[in-house]
Amino acid sequence: MSDSDKRGRNRRWALWTGGLLLLGAGAAVAAYFLFFQKQGNLTNARAPFEAPKPVPKPRKRAAESFQWPIYGYTPQRTRYLDANIKPPFKKLWLFGKGSLIEFQPVLANGFLYVVENSGMAYRINARSGKVMWQRRVGSLNASSPAWYHDRLYVATLSGAITCLDGRSGKVLWKKPLPSRSESSPIVIKGVVYFGSENGTVFALRADNGGKVWTYHAGGAVKAGLAYDKGMLFFGDYAGAVTALRARDGSKVWSAGTSGGAFNTSGNFYSTPAVAFGRVYLGNTDSFVYSFVAKDGQLAWRHGTGGYVYAAPAVADIPHFGPTVYIGSYDGRFYALDARSGSERWSYAAGGRISGAPTIVGDIVYFSNLGDKTTDGLAVRSGRRVWKFGHGAFNPVISDGKRLYVTGYSSEYGLLPH
Question: Do 188 and 217 touch, CB atoms closer than 8 A?
């Protein structure tokens, strides 16, 4: 073989080798973008969105007849109270027995119902902070109770749900569960609904605990269920969001997620909020999600820099518009456009935000787990207007007259100056 033939053959081998290397590199890049790279923000402009309807002003009621009966206030779990109550505040009373209080109390007719992580439940006079009764419902708890017709329903990590008489604290019925539960119950038309760690969603008769139906999800259901227009909505630890018919537990739709690396699904610990024909909730893949409530199509996802354990607060703020408020483990608190998911403003809290916010009037409150404080921000600008030196997970509830703040292991009754 001549020298020129050898040179030509070497050039062809070099070209073949270079081409194969380029193909390999291209395949590697494609595989990276397809399987390894984390997904980005997404907006589906065609997803239906219900225009906000005028909300009539709530009838003025005395604080002693007001009800904040479940975690999230309304059956839709929107966490919004339209009330003219704002700082500065003065402290009326302090309650604390030294045990962690991860979830805020509920309120009915002048009494707060608090359940500590230790499994001890209390009835507290909302005006004075005086303990009216206490009752052990388990050895470990991580949820808010539900109040319904002077009865209290508590699902615990001890693997049981207990019904107490609201006035006396007497146990009316108790039902063991096949697994632990940290799903804050909701009661609709005499039926109590909640999830559990083995993926079972329960519908039980509120009067006696009798089974109405059960549904088995693909992963642990740790969040509370939200209710709207005859349907129940929840996320699970398999990364799915599901809608069930409340009357019989039949599945209407289920939607998966792929917001993590390798197109994997994160976990839904966040209790959903339902508003404007949408379902809103956070995921441990760092995204906040919006699904169409009717059929489950993905409307948008918005990324943060860390886990989103928190549940959202959602409201149509006058002179601002429909907005989703939620915190992240990245240390920021976000206000997102409820329709598109675009960021309206964000606030650097400087510490992890694990619990759900609450909107009272023109202020949205959240707890900072990093520095154990509670902040109040102006809903339209994100400017901080109040800071309280106690907090951890879920911040406040209100009866329109007083503000009740949950610290790390204490409850505070505050009154505007």
Answer: no
How many distinct helices (H) and strands (E) make up the chain?
1, 35
Tokens of 28: 């590697």
E-strand stretches of 9-144: 42-43, 67-68, 80-81, 89-95, 106-108, 111-115, 120-125, 131-136
pLDDT digits (tens, 9 = 90+) for 71-105: 999 999 999 999 999 999 999 999 998 899 999 99
SS3 at position 413:
strand
* Type and span of the H or E element at 275: strand 273-275
Q: Which is nearest to 327 in space by CA: 344, 349, 342, 343? A: 349
Beta-carbon contacts of residue 3 (< 8 Å; ≥ 6 apart): none
Judge contact between 109 and 116, C-beta under 8 A. Answer: no
19 residue type, one letter: G
The whole model's pTM is what?
A: 0.89
DSSP 8-state assignment for residue 20 = H
